[in-house]
Amino acid sequence: MRTFLGAALGTALGAVLILPAAAQTRPDQIKFREIYQELVETNTTLSSGSCTLAAQRMGARLKAAGFAGSDLHYFAVPENPKEGGLVAIYPGSDPQAKAVLLLAHLDVVEARREDWTRDPFKLIEQGGFFYGRGTADMKGQAAVWVDMLIRFKQEGFKPRRTLKLAMTCGEETSDAFNGASWLAKNRRPLIDAGIALNEGGGGRLDPSGKRLLLTIQAGEKHFQNYRLEVTNIGGHSSRPTPNNAIYRLAQGLTRISAYQFPVTTNEATRAFFAAMGPQVGGKMGAAMTTFAKNPTDAQAAATLAADPSHNAILRTTCVATLLEAGHANNALPQRARANINCRIFPGTSVEQVRLKLAQLVADPQVKVTTLEKRNEVAKPPPLTPEVMGPVKAAAAKIWPGVPVAPVMLAGATDATFLNPVGIPTYGITGIFGEHDGNGAHGLNERIRVRSLYEGRDFLTEVVRAYANQK
Fold this sequence. Notes:
single chain, 470 residues, alpha/beta, Aminopeptidase, Alpha-Beta Plaits, 3 domains, six-stranded mixed sheet, 15 helices
């Protein structure tokens, strides 16, 4: 997952329930840990790892548990043999009922041993945390899905709805082969479902480890890159002219940097701020409460926007991320380019943003083009009682008193490929994260041991409920 709201929630001052002391590991948790360890210790980076190997190892575990070979569907494309995945089917009793899809990406962000305190591809338990690349993003949840289906098979669980597990590759790299996208385009019936459960939501802890809020992700902003480019005949640097490609590009970038897109809200963002307001308290908490009731309140919006994490879910955002210009130290630049990365609020089109960037640049010599579109912009999936009910019931059972609220992500997950094709996809994990984001994508990634085990119990409750829904 590329980003989430851990930092924003970590600023909260309120608290609901202190984490209990560590309990003795249960026998079923030990078996789960074995699956988790195998996943973490299977390198699935794009540069030197193999998602295909990880998928094969998980498939072997499912087959050993009694899954028929016909219910295990491996996939890969010839040009990306190490970026394959697996779809596993657990048949339900009602063929007319829409399936429940369990989604997980197997790939992880690069990790260099010389940079880490511990070996990033060894699962190390220390001080109440699991350390290793992918421990938080998102091999914990992937292991939960595999372990859950194995336990269901061993128990003889007969769900009304078919359960489907899709383990894919490519979520962490925008220009790599993406398994979720490939399945949506090429194997749509195989993954068809009435609801999909993915990464993206989860619980948040304050800096002292107290639970603040459990979220369910409903929608995310659309990831889109644009290119600003100026071309020029150039010339000798001893004869500068006013029409300099670098200067023209810089002026356009300055205009973009000074602009803020309009405040926009949806059901998820309003509900999130309504739930967080009482938790945070003070000026920021009051602004959250006010904004949730009246999104047109300019003062409340301005207070929220002062925090980059809150601002990220208030509006479309665009920022310069790459620059490239010139061809020699002693020559006037013939070309200057910049990449603008935008996170587009649902309801705004890619073309609308491109036109706005061109308007802001206000220079016909600065060409604004849309780079490759990874997917179509999708509307947030609906937050119906059928969706929220099982989440709230399981949360009340495991963490009584902890509020539950929807959230929209500023970043992107593989839900971006499923929502547009009609598979409502929600971020539901039940895993409480640290206020600093657990080091995901960074050094010494970790996850609290108790948080992972509790999230496993929570997800089991939720999936059972969805699987038997009428």
